[in-house]
Fold:
Amino acid sequence: MLLFREQVPAEWLPGVLGNLPAMLVDHAHLERKAATSAINLENYRDLYSRVEELNAIAAEELRHFQLVLDLLKQRGIPFGRPQTSPWISGLMRSVRSGQRHQAIDHLICAALIEGRSCEKFQILAKELLSIDARLARFYDSLVESEGNHYATYLLMARGIDNAEADRRLDFYLGLDAELIRRPNPLPMLH
Ligand SMILES: [Fe+2]
Ligand SMILES: [Fe+2]
Structure:
């Protein structure tokens, strides 16, 4: 179902496993940003009719945010400052302006972020089993939801303009493949 052209680099997994507390703080921010992103999408004229679906996604992301905050508390990890993801900023920098173009690009970027999260949560669910089974189960429990967000955002973009959404998806898949190969030394999800 995921359309990515490049695999998650091999060095990503040992990087995050080597500093799970930092990854969990980054994950908390990722869910917080996913909630705000869903609410920001409600600003586009082409998405006014989808406001309730977007609200539902925002509410789900806020629940995920709370679940990660609960994990942090259980593990005595303080919530801290967000780090900037070069991969996410690289994608978002290419969002064009103009109502319709911007809405399509923003939706596709949001879809790719959800899709990569879904993929990485699957990897974590598998690899954490022998290290931290509770955390493995937690990541497994999020996979379906993030996969649904990926599909919903892509369908929303296609609902605005199918041909344009496919053109931009092609562009963004190329950009994702280029950006994901750039090393990020920080223990971040993206
Ligand atoms: Fe989420
Ligand atoms: Fe999500």
